[in-house]
Amino acid sequence: MGTMEAELKNWLKKRPYLGEIAGLHRIITATVEQSAVSATGNADPGEERTVKELEKGIPFLRAAQTDGGAVESAAGLFKEIIDALAAASLTEKIDDYARLMQRAFEKEPALPEQIIAEVLEKNSVEGSKAALEGIDEGFVIFAAWRALARALQPLQERVAELLEKHLWRRGYCPVCGHLPAVGHLLHTEKGQGRERDLVCGCCQMKWRYKRIGCPYCGNSTQKQLKIIGLDDEPDLRIDTCDQCKSYLKTYTGEGNERIALADWSTLHLDLIARKQGFKRAGYQMYGV
Ligand SMILES: [Zn+2]
Ligand SMILES: [Zn+2]
């Protein structure tokens, strides 16, 4: 596997229309990767209890108390992301949002943590509305989730280990409870055909799901599940469901996961699916 930068260049060469959104993600990824803020996911209600909750279908962060350590780390990262975006001169709009947020954070030092906690709990920034005047809510939620995705990584790894023994056959995220944005059809090591992973549209957790069937409504009637193929992109497709009218963007290749499963990188698939009358289930992240 090459460097992320090389993979990204390659991806954009074929899809130049993603250049602007890629610039935003490039800066956020670099900020998060270079950050000194440590990821400390430490909500541990005990393995036995966690397993019981997971078996009942309760996502980890709904079963446990909101993790103070992860919220604090995410708030630190969130501020770093906003600072990096304010310094980057990407687009006028993003510049404006980032600078307004910097000012809001200066005025209210507890604001980043308050936003992170609210996004984690309700996927909303309603409670901080007054402090965020003039800033697109979706932009704030998006930046908050990028920080959270990194801060929750230790927790995601732990949940992934538990899921090896206690399969999570649900269509929503075992960590945060949100819906998947992208699927990945992959070959298993055992050579037993293909399996499917889903990727959370919010915290980016990945989990195994049944290979055939709509994760949004559970429908597995084959004739209601259709695939929209893309002539010039053999590694990508759109899985649709006639019952709930939702679609799942799916990567069928291997080796390009970091970009192909990132949601923003397949923005053009969202447009195609919508044009054909399907709706995006789950949260629509900023820019996608
Ligand atoms: Zn999640
Ligand atoms: Zn469905």
The main β sheet shows up as: 6 strands, mixed
Question: What distance lies between the first and last C-alpha atoms, to the nearest angstrom?
Answer: 26 Å
- Run of helices and strands: HHHHHHHHHEEEEEEHH
Bound molecules: zinc ion
Domain module tally: 2
Shape: globular
Number of strands: 6
Enumerate the strands of the largest sheet in spatial order, edge to edge or round the barrel. 3-2-1-6-5-4
Helical content stands at 40-55%
Structural class: alpha+beta
* Poorly predicted runs: none
Looking at how many chains there are and whether they match, the oligomeric state comes to single chain
Rg, rounded, reads: 19 Å
The DSSP helix count reads 11
Report the sheet-strand fraction.
Answer: 5-15%
> What would the average pLDDT be, to the nearest integer?
92
